[in-house]
Q: What sequence folds into this?
């Protein structure tokens, strides 16, 4: 890896995506690894990210890509890639709470193990390979509460408020109980 | 001498050309399934029938039985994953069992009970799906479709028609009917067609037959789906198998 990076003059490297979105993300601690079928396989795709990039954004982008690409033939990929997108959005947008990274990983394994074809079997790789290397990055997104609803409670009351023509304090809900 | 595979350690005979599902069913071994039906070509899409064959994950309904196979079926790991896959099907659509005419006769619901599913586990999609009540005898409630394609296959393979198809991709996949208007009334579907009776869920229902069998006296109200499936599917193929 280091040889290729030197040859192409890459500096300030954060990590590499080898083998496209369905391949492996490696960190800048692993540049002694080899481009080979036995180590890091690729059909030719080699993406270099510098330190101005955000790892969660990368995983997020690829995960959305797979949810969009799923043909929908089998249940684990059809529903799973869309659930994965939702779950990652929840964490990245700061609505995750304790247990949400565990749930994320459980979902990844289910999609990987049970999908019918290679798309589903690799769709969770962006999350799995970054989660393996940067678990603290995912954990640090989580709120320090045991549970948070997956949607905005107050926004969900908007239609009811309009119908009742109310906007007083009693017509609003806090997302979490403030203790 | 009979050829055999083993399923969960038991020797199961098979004939050349049989799938693992067919060999298992003939031998009285239940493998959970939703898109599989013995009278139609296998589809392999729901993934409820996932088994491990010599360690490898396979769909029992499409995988040919072969000498030397050591199959795992009724294990905790597999049933846990099957439950999660069933939960995916529930959150993808809108299933309000207590107010659904199919309750008690529904294979999705029955398989969920069999796998001891007690909640939805995943967040709901709250998908916006339409009803099609245009046909004078048959209605479609898209909220309950799980895209098993049994109606598609039944219409083509039994009825000699081509009433149903699946369109779209990913989570936007949906059932369509073969008419310019997109309405069931403009297709050549008749209530006597196999396609109108094959749906494992409450997505395709025959009108004016609702609640003729009261809740409490329905197929899965007193029997688990494994018992029902083995009794129905291991007997010689009959023309009429009506789950509704
Ligand atoms: S189709 Fe089956 S699972 Fe869905 S609501 Fe009706 S009874 Fe419940
Ligand atoms: S309508 Fe019923 S039979 Fe047809 S694809 Fe949907 S769930 Fe399957
Ligand atoms: S029964 Fe085998 S995949 Fe649906």
A:
């Amino acid at each position: 890896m280091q040889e290729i990076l030197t040859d192409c003059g890459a500096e300030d490297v954060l990590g590499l995506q080898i083998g496209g979105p369905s391949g492996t993300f490696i960190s800048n601690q692993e540049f002694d690894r080899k481009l080979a079928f036995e180590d890091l396989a690729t059909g030719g795709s080699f993406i270099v990210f510098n330190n101005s990039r955000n790892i969660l954004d990368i995983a997020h982008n690829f995960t959305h890509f797979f949810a969009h690409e799923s043909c929908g033939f089998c249940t684990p990929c059809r529903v799973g890639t869309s659930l994965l997108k939702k779950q990652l959005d929840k964490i990245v947008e700061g609505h995750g709470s304790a247990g949400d990274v565990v749930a994320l990983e459980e979902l990844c394994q289910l999609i990987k193990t049970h999908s019918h074809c290679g798309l589903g079997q690799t769709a969770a790789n962006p999350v799995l390979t970054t989660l393996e290397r940067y678990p603290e990055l995912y954990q640090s997104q989580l709120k320090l509460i045991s549970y948070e609803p997956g949607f905005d409670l107050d926004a969900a009351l908007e239609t009811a408020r309009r119908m009742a023509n109310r906007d007083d304090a009693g017509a609003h809900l806090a997302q979490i109980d403030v203790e | 001498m009979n050829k055999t595979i083993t399923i969960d350690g038991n020797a199961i005979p098979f004939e050349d050309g049989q799938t693992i599902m067919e060999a298992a069913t003939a031998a009285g071994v239940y493998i959970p399934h939703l898109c599989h039906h013995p009278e139609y070509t296998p589809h392999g899409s729901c993934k409820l029938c996932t088994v491990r064959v010599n360690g490898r994950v396979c769909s029992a309904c499409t995988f040919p039985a072969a000498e030397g196979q050591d199959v795992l079926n009724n294990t905790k790991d597999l049933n846990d994953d099957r439950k999660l896959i069933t939960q995916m099907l529930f959150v993808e659509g809108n299933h309000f069992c207590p107010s659904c005419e199919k309750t008690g006769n529904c294979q999705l619901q029955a398989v969920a009970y069999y796998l001891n599913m007690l909640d939805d586990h995943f967040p709901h999609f709250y998908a916006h799906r339409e009803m099609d009540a245009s046909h004078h005898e048959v209605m479609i409630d898209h909220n309950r479709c799980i895209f098993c394609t049994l109606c598609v296959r039944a219409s083509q393979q039994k009825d000699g028609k081509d009433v149903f198809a699946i369109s779209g991709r990913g989570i936007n996949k949906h059932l369509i009917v073969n008419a310019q208007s997109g309405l069931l009334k403009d297709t050549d579907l008749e209530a006597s067609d196999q396609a109108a009776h094959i749906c494992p869920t409450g997505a395709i229902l025959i009108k004016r037959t609702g609640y003729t069998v009261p809740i409490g006296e329905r197929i899965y109200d007193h029997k688990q789906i494994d018992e029902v499936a083995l009794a129905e599917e291991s007997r010689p193929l009959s023309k009429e198998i009506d789950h509704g």
